[in-house]
Amino acid sequence: MSQQPNPTSTGGDKPSTAKAAGGWPALGSSIKHTLKQAGSLQIARSLLKVNQPEGFDCPGCAWPDPQDTSAFEFCENGAKAVAWEATRNRVTAAFFEQHPVCDLRQRSGHWLESQGRLVEPMRYDRVSDRYKPSAWGDAFALIGKRLRAIDNPDRAVFYTSGRTSNEAAFLYQLLGRRLGTNNFPDCSNLCHESSGVALTEAIGVGKGTVTLEDFDHADLIIVIGQNPGTNHPRMLTELQKAAKRGAKIVSVNPMLEPGLMAFTHPQHAGAMLTGKATPISSRYLQALIGGDLAALKGVCKHVLDAEAEAPGTVLDHKFIREHTRGFDAFADNVRLTDWALIEEQSGLSKQDLAGLADDYIASKRVIVCWAMGLTQHKHAVPTIRMIVNLLLLRGNLGRAGAGACPVRGHSNVQGDRTMGITEKPGEAFLSKLGEVFSFTPPTRHGMGVVHAIEAMLQTPGHVFIAMGGNFAAATPDTDRTARALENCRLTVQVSTKLNRSHTVVGEDALILPCLGRTERDVTSCGPQRVSVEDSMSMVHASEGRNPPASETLRSEPAIIAGIADAVFGGGDPIDWQQHAGDYSLIRDAIERVIPGFERFNERIEEPGGFYLGNSARDRAWTTASGRAQFVAAEIPDLTLPADQVRLMTLRSHDQYNTTVYGLNDRYRGVKGRRDIVFVNQDDLAERGLVSGDRVDIESHYADGVPRRVEGFEAVAYALPRGCAAGYFPELNPLVSLASRADRSHTPTSKFIPVTITRSRTA
Ligand code: SF4
What we know:
- The chain is an alpha/beta fold.
- The protein is globular.
- A hairpin with a 2-residue loop joins strand 26 (655-656) and strand 27 (659-660).
- The protein binds iron/sulfur cluster.
């Protein structure tokens, strides 16, 4: 279904969705949220330091900072992220005395996190079902004892959230590998793993190839399966600049997202005074959920047809000849693919796709951006390979203004992977690590998120450690994940704020409160800086400026060193405390182990940091064939039984990953609630339902396990027939652990086959 970007009704009383992102509502919301959490002075100071060369990196998403930062280099959701961490609220021992875990378990994620910052280590007391204060030494000793007691190092699971700094991530992987395991599940397994797998196969490197400056030169930007207005809001600044200079922006998304329709920059006084929003998308294609592979193949087909009509005028033959492999097989497969199948499975007409293809052919420099809308599907990897196929047809890789741009959701999720947080480490990395630290790292691959959950479910006695994040809420199959964690001998959560994962406890459980990204980290060697890597491979420093929420907090490196000393005893050849006291020593080690970090300590001092480089950007293809690789892919038949629709999970505008800042979703017209499901009006009518009715939602997978949520409110929304959407983590109980993307094992949270029926409870 294609749209000139004005929401056309599919009938019925819909929520009053916003027509544009940003503007006064964004400013108002930023001020409201920040003042509610932290004192005006404190928050003003913090916001003037976020994303600044001498400041700290926003704990939100991984959108890069411009070379010349503005005085207010943050978006509405960045302000919320900073305020959420800088909150005045504290979760003390008295709080835990008042609230047994069974009570906390009944509370919403928003309520739990709103209680504030954790201030001291807590150990779970099964008898009273409460957390009790624990000394740091006792907590480390317990972890040391449990890790030494496991019969196999692969009974240890080291989870990492994308907030973890490079220095902490490097030390964390060293701890796990020193122990003897590669079990490093991380939030990338839940989000862009499919991008990493596809890009590595196609162009030899699992990262995006563009830099922020490329957005100044692109004449077509395709945004597919991504909602930047909520999830990467500063990206709207680049899209607005591009639109104003005449570049085309094409959005492919089942949902009509205001941020892709129009934008009023809150820092542009003229626009704020006139209320004049800049139109963003010149073309908006509402493909079916999961229909992107078919849509992209249709675009490639039209491009090849155009080349056939005017040979030598459309394709970049020189690039294809000199830099690629597999073109002929790919082109033949595309030519043999029926338009009828393409239209049926994409939900878009040949004319829609021809329009996008003509935009592509008319453009010299093209960037394609994507996010979870593509990565959380069974066929995610071939879909992302089809993006690369499209880019290769006209040489849109490895030159200015063009390339692949997977936009990461967490501030350092890419950096953590670069630091070795992966269950599938490369041989070169392991041998270097062993050489630098004089031990033999394990070579047996470890477990990512879904495999770790299965292992913990099947076999009691694991030790699960989470460096940040909210594992119990972020993962699929919520009830089964909870049972997996409860089956552990010990669960350890290193966290800044109370969340759902603290209410799901192993036989033993610890909460270890750590410093936040915004806070000063001072050791015996003085103030410490950490580093992060954004979506575009820029590595830069981050130094917290706020006073710690509590004097008892410890940094992530200090916590890792405390655990290591408890496991290995103080006499270990690796001086963990020394590294935790002076992060420049960790960076020295990173420089010796990981290519691209030459003169790391010197270069991290440069304002804005340094570019890590990307071999594909230099057209040096480190693939098996030594060339960029075309690959054909069949269009999967995603047709569901007539009584089912395809449901996708998404964030509200007051949400960041599993962190819920508030209960509104301003852009989609939702106020004060999260138990809702967006459904096409005619699909509701077909089920005898109207907008506002209470419904039960049940998912249907081959494993036959009943998964159901009840009493949600149906909201009619401009979605294609057969498509629905709702929030995670509330809908994660519907996602089967066994339903994952081929080859990347990313849970398929964007394609949940469900039935929606009138609620039997409400
Ligand atoms: S765009 Fe992302 S990184 Fe930038 S301020 Fe907003 S949330 Fe933070």
